[in-house]
Amino acid sequence: MTLIFSGNDFKYELEGVMKLFIPAKLFSHEFTDRYVKVEGDAAFFRRRKGKRYTLLYVYVTLGSKTCYRVARIQNAESDYENECELTLSRLLFSVMSELTGKQAKWGIITGIRPVKRVNKMLSNDMTKDQIYDIMRNRYLCDNNKIDIAYKTAKTQSEILSDLDNKSFSLYVSIPFCPTRCSYCSFVSQSIEGCLNLIPEYVDNLCREIEYTAEIVKRLGLVLDTVYFGGGTPTTLEADMLDKLMKTIAGSFDLSNLREYTVEAGRADTITCEKLKVLKKNGCNRISINPQTLNDSVLERIGRKHTAEQFLDSYKLAKSIGFESVNTDIIAGLPTDTLDSFKNTVDKLIQLEPENITVHTLSIKRAARLNQEENDEVFDNPASKMVDYATKRLLENGYLPYYLYRQKNMLDNLENIGWCKPNKESLYNIYIMEEVQTILAVGAGGSTKLVDLKNDRIERIFNYKFPLEYNKHFDLMIKKKDEIEGFYSE
Ligand code: SF4
């Protein structure tokens, strides 16, 4: 597909809209200031500025079909460039909906944080009707998606109104897993191949924690939440987890800490001893993720545990007294059916975990799983699965509290974190809405510095893989000094 831009260069946004309808295609681009006759699979986006009005035009040929739309806006329109871009996006959306018969339920919103828009409108004191009107008519969102984005923003509103510019969260990266799941796209390594790296990795991580804590003390920042992610942090042995958590407790002031999460992720890493170490060191929230409660699907995706192992781990965690347990599931896994997914959702709801996170498989991951079966990916019940989960979770008193989309998700869907009332994970909201500084330690960690007052965000990236993290540790840790630079500006 060739994308031809005439009188405009809205490449990023228009390509994003096109990808809603023709996933994972490679596009070529041409730029011209002329009118072009379109031949073959191509899209032509034209902006022609007259004396008072600008004419916007989208023409697409796809296979044997063609379709076009035209609109006109005033040159005096405030925020003229943005209006041109949005109008062309809407025209393209309409053309592609007609040509492909596909529905893209988030309309022309292609970014990963649709709730951020709603939060902004709420903070500008817009009414519910005004917000729905903008989401529907300006961004062409489907009513169900607007509902979920609005409900999510409302669940977040109290937490967001209570934020201090000096508070921060600490992210601890443990990029190891017992084995690699076939759909994984994280920076995570199977421990089989890197067992010998782990002791040095844990030592370096402790040094990075201490170094970061010194910076925090000098800046007077206040630790709000701790989050161990990865990977699967509970891949580490109990004594290593103990050492890391004790280093955190010995380095930071935890007296204002409101949440301490450790992703225990996979049931095949969980033992009573490890859970007790987490609890003893102040962790009050863990994730135990079945992804599905269908054993044959678990086997298909390379998770080396059964549904029963998940249930045993869950009961163990509850018996040890964790206040909040999250369980992740994925809609659209290969070989999973709508009925089997419904069974997973219903069984999980019966357990009444405080959080249930419903992910949708991304096409990229699915495609890697299914190199030879790409059609299966596009003919998938994921959308019905997500609708079912949404309906059942709402019926059972769960509230959506964070929501994000990834590029290339099946059916242009989303991931939604659901919680029992007042059981939101603060960290998940902070990271998704970009409202609090996250100081990350460990390989693959990315520190996000947020200055809400001045609307500034900066990032510092650690080395991605444990091997280079260990090897270049002394060089890398110097980058942490940029944190002080950010706060002194
Ligand atoms: S548990 Fe998560 S991080 Fe680990 S391999 Fe599986 S998907 Fe990747």
Tell me what you see in this structure.
The protein is of the alpha/beta class and 489 residues long. The protein has 3 domains: 99 residues, 2-Layer Sandwich (Double Stranded RNA Binding Domain), CATH 3.30.160; 45 residues, no CATH class; 321 residues, pyruvate-formate lyase- activating enzyme, CATH 3.80.30.20. 42% of the residues lie in helices and 22% in strands. The strands form 4 sheets. It has a 9-stranded mixed β-sheet, with helices on both faces. Strands 2-1-3-4-5 form a 5-stranded mixed β-sheet, with helices on one face. It binds iron/sulfur cluster (SF4). Iron/sulfur cluster binds next to loops. The site of iron/sulfur cluster (SF4) has 11 residues, from loops.
Shape: globular
Total domains, how many?
3
Bound molecules: iron/sulfur cluster
Residues in helices, as a percent range: 40-55%
**Which class of secondary structure composition applies to the elements?**
alpha/beta
| N- and C-termini, Cα separation | 46 Å
How big a fraction of the residues is strand? 15-25%
The major pleated sheet works out as: 9 strands, mixed
The stretches of 5 or more residues where confidence is low (pLDDT under 50) are 371-376
Look at the structure and name the CATH superfamily of the largest domain: tm_1862 like domain
Output the radius of gyration: 24 Å
Strand order of the largest sheet: 14-15-13-12-11-10-9-6-16
